[in-house]
Amino acid sequence: MAAELVEAMNMVKSFRVSDLQTLLASMGRSKSGLKQDLVGRALRLVQTEYSPELLKNVRQLYESRFPKTSGWLAARRPDGVPVGYSSLSSSPTATSQGADYLNGISKPVPTPAAEVKLVPLPFYQTLETLLLPTELISQNNEKLQDSQCIFELTPNQADQIRNASELRPGMRSIQVVLRICYTDSIGVQEDQYPPNIAVKVNQSYCHVPGYYPSNKPGVEPRRPCRPVNITPWLHLSTATNRVTVTWGNFGKRYSVAVYLVRVFTAADLFSQLKLCSEESAERCRERIQEKLRFDPESEIATTGLRVSLICPLVKMRLGVPCRVLTCAHLQCFDAVFFLQMNEKKPTWTCPVCDKPAPFELLTIDGLLSDILKETSEDIEEIEYLTDGSWRPIRDEKERDRERERSNTPEYPVVDICIPEANGHSPAHSSTSLTGKSGSGSVGMAGGPVAGGAVVDLTLDSSSEEEEEGGGAGGDSEDTEDSADSPAPKRGRYNYDKDLVTAY
User: Are the CB atoms for 389 and 382 separated by under 8 Å?
Assistant: First the structure.
């Protein structure tokens, strides 16, 4: 009965002056006055003296004016699911003035909200529709409006929610969500919150996603418009659930709908992506060859395409390369990170070219997946060639290091030990690993130095004396001369500075 009462009042608000006068005269009421007075009088009549006869008169007048759309409110109501309606203002006069005419001109009747279609969401699978899209109607000229809708759960639906598994504490896999969008029958509508939105379910306010701060200066924070989970505040029984939406009336029209949905996680969507949307390596090669095919009309011939192995989202090496089928580029992004980011902040935008990237158009690049397995971690870029093959692109610094390494000569190793008692270093004698005399291994003989020196402090003086004793006789002259000469200067580490040259 309550649904029929609200239906009759919505019909009355769409009446013209002649219709209102006819209705009031049939019920013995005064039919004089302005339109807002007639509407207020008719609404009070429906509220206070509701009867089957009055309802019949209202429907006849409504159908006489709208013969093609008669009964649309009842026609769009599924079996067993009542339709929600806007709440009524306590002042009928203000209601009629704000809702039905502006500046003395009657407002056009809005398009039925049943024609509004909401865009499907990848993380939500709609199981049942509890409330079809219903327009939020302003009741007066106030900026803040309150609109109410009602619905009931069947025992089967309540059991589904009650027995659903938990994705995380406080979040079930089966939920009842509230979705709000613009009232527009052209195309599918994305979720869009009105200003100053607040949602109250059974006299308790529920959480509505807040604003995300912007990293760019001068850019206002953006609110992610996603379905509002109202499950924790519902009566999980056949009792009536009342949802009150507080919204800012700034000239735009909004519709609200309620759905029973199954919630997916990023891991669930990733499993679906791997199972249903992976492009083979052969198909990827054909795509590369098409892009690099020679065009005689083009002045520039492309011989290769470079692709980075670093994800543009997280600046890390790709794990599962993914791209959008409608994008022209071959650069991929990581599928796991992309789904996780859209689970928290749904944008569904390609991170490479900023074009729309809906989940239905994502695909895994089979060729790049194989390349990632074959290349080492230090390879960060590859180049596709005209025949569909590829080659790794090494970093410029790595190439410079290899070039320096290839041009560096091999130096002999010289052991420099603890100096002997006479003040000379064993490096002056024949102690190099090359087996040559001291003049060949130490750069003090007047010629160019053949190589660098490696200091070996592990040998003691006694072992060096034994080596000198068993060495060639040519060293004896140096020993006699050095006996009369002054002791050479010693460095900090107790070896001769004049006798050692290191590179």
Answer: no
Q: Which 3 state secondary structure label does DSSP give 272? A: helix
Q: What is the mean pLDDT of residues 56-78?
A: 58
Q: Above 90 in pLDDT, residue 215?
A: no
pLDDT bin (cut points 50, 70, 90) of residue 453 is low
Report which of 472, 484, 498 is spatially closest to residue 416, judged by C-alpha positions: 498
Is 180 in a helix, a strand, or coil? strand
For residue 329, give the nearest of 357, 301, 348 by alpha carbon: 357
Query: Which ranges of 229-365 does DSSP label H, i.e. alpha helix?
Result: 266-276, 281-292, 335-344
Closest CA to 460 of 414, 415, 413: 415
At residue 493, what is the residue type? Y
Check residue 33 and give left, alpha or beta (phi > 0: left; psi -120 to 50: alpha): left
CA dist., res. 46 & res. 43, Å (int):
5
Pull the structure tokens for residue 327. 């994008």
pTM: 0.56
| 224 pLDDT more than 80 | no
CB–CB of 49/95 below 8 Å? Answer: no
Task: Provide the H-helix boundaries in 150-191.
Answer: 155-162
Q: What is the 3-state secondary structure (H, E, C) of 20-57?
A: HHHHHHHCCCCCCCCHHHHHHHHHHHHHHCCCHHHHHH
Chain-centroid distance of CA 348 in Å reads 6
Tell me the mean pLDDT in the region 10-30: 81
Cβ contact 369:273 at 8 Å: no
Q: What is the mean pLDDT of residues 6-15?
A: 78
Q: How far apart are CA 356 and CA 4, in angstroms?
A: 44
Q: Coil, strand, or helix at residue 309?
A: coil
Single-letter residue type at 358: P
**Residue corresponding to tokens 């083009």:** 298
Task: Give 7's pLDDT tier (boundaries 50, 70, 90).
Answer: confident
pLDDT confidence bin for 293, thresholds 50/70/90: confident
* C-alpha span between 69 and 203 (Å, rounded): 35
Q: Residue range 337-353: average pLDDT?
A: 92
Phi, psi of 35 (to 5 degrees): -65, -40
SS (H, E, C) 144-159: EEEEEEEEECCHHHHH
For the residues 171-200, what does the mean pLDDT come to?
89
Please state the length of the chain: 503
pLDDT at residue 490 above 70?
A: no
Task: Show the CA angle centred on residue 241, arms to residues 235 and 245, nearest 5°.
Answer: 125
Pairing status of strand 188-189 against strand 117-118 = parallel
